[in-house]
Write a structure and sequence with these properties.
It is a single chain. Helix 4 packs across helix 18, helix 9 packs parallel to helix 11 and helix 14 packs parallel to helix 16. The chain is globular. It has 18 helices and 26 strands. By secondary structure, it is of the alpha/beta class. The termini are far apart. The protein is 31% helix and 18% strand. The protein has an 8-stranded mixed beta sheet with strand order 1-7-5-6-4-2-3-26. The protein has an 8-stranded parallel barrel with strand order 8-9-13-16-17-18-19-25, surrounded by 4 helices.
Amino acid sequence: MKAFFAKIIAFFLSILTALGIISAKKPETVDPCTAMSSLWDSYSRNDETFTLTGESRIFLLSEEAPTGELLCTLQLAQRQFTSDNIPTGEALPIVYGSTDQIRDGDIVLDLSGSAAELGGEGFELNIDKTAAVKAADEDGLLYGLNTLQKYFRAAKSNSISGFTAVNVPDTAERTVMLDCARKYFTPQWICNLIKEMSWIGYNTLELHITEDSGFRADIWDSRYFTSPEGNDYSWLCGGEPAYWLYAYGENSPFAEKAENRSKYLTASDLIEICKTAKEYHIEIIPSIDTPAHSEFMNTRYCNYIAEHPDYTFTYNAQVYSMNGVTTEGKLLSYKEAFPDAPRANFSKINFSDELPGKNPAADGLDAANPVARAFMFSVIRDYAAFFSRYAGSTKFNIGTDEVNFVKYGTGWAEYAVSNGFGSTQYDTFLQYINSAAAVVKSCGYTPRAFNDTLYCQRSDWGTPTVTPDPDIEIVYWSGYNGIPATVFTEKGHKVYNAISQYNYYVLRCNVKQKANGTYTEVPNSDYTDPDAPYMYYRGAREIYDEWNPSRMYNQSDDPVTVPDFAGGYYLIWCDYPGYKTEEQIWYGADESGSHNVRQRMWANCTKMWNIGANEALSFDDFDTNLIAAWGDFPGFTDCSSAASLPLSSDPVRAQ
């Protein structure tokens, strides 16, 4: 009866509202430009109005014509403004000169050194009759220009109200990691990701190119790159679903699509990615996984060696024969390696000798095998040489995560004893990691690694004598082994916040097979699903409201403050590579936008620029008024197609 009367009342209210007898209450809204102002370190309004016209110019305060990175930055900004039809769709000319040549309506750029106090990447906007962007370096200049363009997008006009604002990032390195080893991403999608990252405010992309089910970066193309020691590992490249995905059937809908399994990024693809990263001020970190997560490499090696028993490679001017590294070159079938597993069609063998107590089905590279070590180190050297040449990379992630030391029995322990550096299998692991770090350092890189297997005190691993090289930077993703992030900083390591609860986007789901052979899926990487407690990764709202880049977690999920952290991550993992397409990752899995990585990246990166952003602006206002107003990067057409940016012009002296 109450429901009946409620419907009657609602009906008459709607009639009265339609007739104008009463007025409907309008929802409260926040002007996007006002919302933006709450995110900066300082902000003050003035009574001026700045308008871009057909006479406006991009004016560099300099007596010298811009060159190199500065010129590229100015031309990128020019193209981006033009793509938004700001002000008319005609390119704003780039000019350089002195202060007395500035005109009202100019965008004035100041790199004179007066903004040194802002530090790297910081910027100041002073908007009145001109729009002045002051920065200490080209990075800050780009962020300032992007912010100015976001104001025009938010205002939906060529005019904006005057103000002065300063913004400096709270987090020095702001990184996205992309797992392009398990899942094949088209080169254009990755280039668009780089452009989107730059627009959002990230400065680093970590390309995770080897994993348990893929080795997807073929740099060995003599047209572009020659291995310093003459090796060619193109035969390693490709992909295959991880063995555990076969539990869902040979044509598992969660494995990579058949047409993509053999695909990988070619040298020319990678060069284009590196070129795009340089243009958009994004540093690239190559990332491989060693010694664990090496199933695909192990399998590909075994198959190749079976067909090419005389194959050799060179490391440190020494020639190594690959024949005999495994048990007589024998290929173990999936069923032989895992007798209780449901499938029997996946070849898999460890890249190792038969060491005493060694489980031949272990999934990692054998750190006690001299040939395996030399092979992996030679691969690292080649990748280091390639990315140094084309991306100018200076950091290299060597993995080290999720190693099951028990699988290696007494073999690793005996290796440590026989080589005189320890007595446990854990010693051999740590000595291997230090050796890999030394290879990276010899190539001019700073090594970094995941945290979970370092400084652990577990009785089944033994008490080690070897300690990790303090130069290894730490990507802190999990406290499940009970080692707080502060342990690493106390021992001299730089630490990056990659804590999985807030910084992971994962293609993975709980799967139930029906009697008719179809599947029901419970997406546990979507934070809104209450039936998916496993791998509960937070969504954009929780990242924005709860995450703090300086707070990491220990085993009991208690936050630990790390005041001297070096940076933060957002990581895109593809455990079930076929679970979503690259379009669904970008836009969302359905019309609701569920499983949308961009919204989470906006929240993650905004908190790295301003840790207290959620205290100044609610998530609803941030999401509805800002993310929607700012949109995708200028020139965006769709996530897998080339951007549409006009040509740039050369700078001229101001008249």
